[in-house]
Amino acid sequence: MLLLAIDTALDYCAAAVLDVTFETVVAQETIEMKRGHAEALMPLIARVMKTARCSYLNLDRIAVTTGPGSFTGLRVGISAARGIGVAANKPVFGLTTLSAYAAPLVAENKNDPIIAAIDARHDHVYFQVVAGDGTTLMKPAVAPIEDTFAAGEFGAPRIVGNAAQILADRWPRHAPQPLQVEPTPGPDIAWVAWMGAATEEGAAPAKPFYLRPPDAKPKPGFLQPGADQRT
């Protein structure tokens, strides 16, 4: 199986080609950026596909992060994935940004709970809590930072996401203290690819995953480059 993974949900513009048969990410590129995903994505995908020596028609599926994240970034990535899927007649799978953040920690096979957290601004975060084996302990939600402290009841957590340090800095002293803090601007594109390969057909549609309405909505058919609304 050959899979193209795309991520533009947060402060990364990234793509990768995964060869599942040989268990190898044959090409990948990640650019850290807060704006400009619309201009950067398609040239980046073209470079990755060229490095992988892969035709779009040779792909078996496409995976893309669906949020929560940047209002514009999500649409850029999902639109690109859908467009490639239609043109090449390939299935497109959507993966939440929170699950993509948690995936490498789940793969470590430890017992500690994992908090995936994304900065939602205004003293709020998008977050999800899973057990070490990936089982959901607290469903994805958007809430004040203090609400994440309830995860302490499951034990000392490992925290990942672009809000990981924010949570760690405000973690209450009386609660079990974080064992690991991984503050990264976006999820690892290689893990987005592996998750896409493991997803069952029809289980994950490629549509934006909203935990709250965007702060602003574009006019129908209009997408303003550079806008950055968290959804």
Describe the secondary structure blueprint for this structure.
Layout: E1 2-7, E2 12-19, E3 24-32, H1 37-52, E4 61-65, H2 71-88, E5 92-95, H3 97-106, E6 114-121, E7 124-130, E8 136-144, E9 158-160, H4 164-170, E10 180-182, H5 189-198
Parallel strand pairs: 1-4, 4-5, 6-9, 9-10
Antiparallel strand pairs: 1-2, 2-3, 6-7, 7-8
Helix pairs in contact: 1-2, 3-5
Named CATH topology of the largest domain: Nucleotidyltransferase, domain 5
Order of helices and strands: EEEHEHEHEEEEHEH
| Unreliable spans | 222-228
How many helical elements? 5
How confident overall, as mean pLDDT? 92
CATH class of the largest domain: Alpha Beta
Estimated structural class = alpha/beta
Question: What strand order characterises the main sheet?
Answer: 3-2-1-4-5
Number-wise, the strands total 10
Strand content: 25-35%
The separation of the N and C termini measures: 32 Å
Biggest sheet, open or closed, and with what strands and sense? 5 strands, mixed
CATH architecture annotation of the largest domain: 2-Layer Sandwich
**Which word captures the global form?**
globular
Helix content percent band: 25-40%
